[in-house]
Each structure stands twice: as C-alpha cells, then as structure tokens.
C-alpha cells in the first residue's frame, strides 16, 4: 500500500485552515505520520487527523465525545472513522464541508478529550 503526504490543492487548503484553528490551542504540535496523515496533537495524542483520501478527496477526522459522535453520525456527511471510530472519532470529506469554521467547536472538543487536565483548565480560562 502506498501512503502519500497531503499534496492536492484541496488537501493543502484543508491543512492550512485546520492549522489556523488547531494552533490557537495551548501546546499543540503538528506531525506527519508514516501513512502521510497530518495530525494535530497535544501531549503527543492526536485530536485531528487529515488525509489525502484517494478518489474521494481529502478528509478530516476529529476525536469527539461519544455523545457528540452520535449526533454527528446522524447527519448526512459524517461517518465513523475507519479503525478508530470506536474511540469516538468521526470523519468528513473536505468536499462535504461548507466551511472549516463549522468544525472549530469539534476541534476544540477533540483537543479537550486529548489534553491533560492542566491544559483543559488553561483553555477554559481563555474562553
């Protein structure tokens, strides 16, 4: 299986938009893994993963609470992330997003799921 880093115009736009949202959060790092996925992490735990996606185009996956996952899966364009969906991950294809701003709350929720308590408290004071 060939793994590619995000290189399409749509994928690069998606990474830039998500980077702008994720990097506002305390102690976030960006990493490209061996599969070519770009992830945003806190305390070395991913909370957003972006992939090129092949014929369907780029996709965004985010870790959310189980209750949020249920709500999102009831919507038309969200689906359970393969392999990790049972841990609260949901995905959406870039072509099905109306704006990245709509994902901001879910990105923040993912961060809070992955971050240590001290960073969650720090973020709550900023909000």
Q: Rg from C-alpha positions?
A: 14 Å
- The sequence of SSEs as H and E is HEEEEHEEHH
End-to-end CA span = 43 Å
How would you sum up the major sheet? 6 strands, antiparallel
* CATH topology-level name: Aspartate Aminotransferase, domain 1
CATH class: Alpha Beta
Number of beta-strand segments:
6
- Strand share of the residues? 15-25%
Label the overall shape.
globular
Mean pLDDT: 93
How many H/I helical runs? 4
In which range does the helix fraction lie?
A: 25-40%
Class by alpha and beta content: alpha+beta
Count of domains: 1
Order of strands across the main sheet: 1-2-3-4-6-5
Can you tell me the CATH architecture?
A: Alpha-Beta Complex
Q: Low-confidence spans: pLDDT under 50, at least 5 residues?
A: none
Give your account of this protein's structure:
A six-stranded antiparallel β-sheet has the order 1-2-3-4-6-5. By secondary structure, the protein is α+β, with helices and mostly antiparallel strands. The chain has helices spanning 9-22, 66-73, 104-114, 117-126; strands spanning 28-32, 38-42, 45-51, 59-63, 79-80, 89-93. The radius of gyration is 14 Å and the shape is globular. It has four helices and six strands.
Q: Main traits of this protein?
A:
six-stranded antiparallel β-sheet; 34% helix; 4 helices; globular; 127 residues; Aspartate Aminotransferase, domain 1; alpha+beta; single chain
Topology:
Layout (H helix, E strand, L loop, with lengths): L8 H14 L5 E5 L5 E5 L2 E7 L7 E5 L2 H8 L5 E2 L8 E5 L10 H11 L2 H10 L1
Protein name: Phosphoribosylglycinamide formyltransferase
InterPro entries: YjbR-like_sf, YjbR/MT2646/Rv2570-like
Organism: Brevibacillus formosus
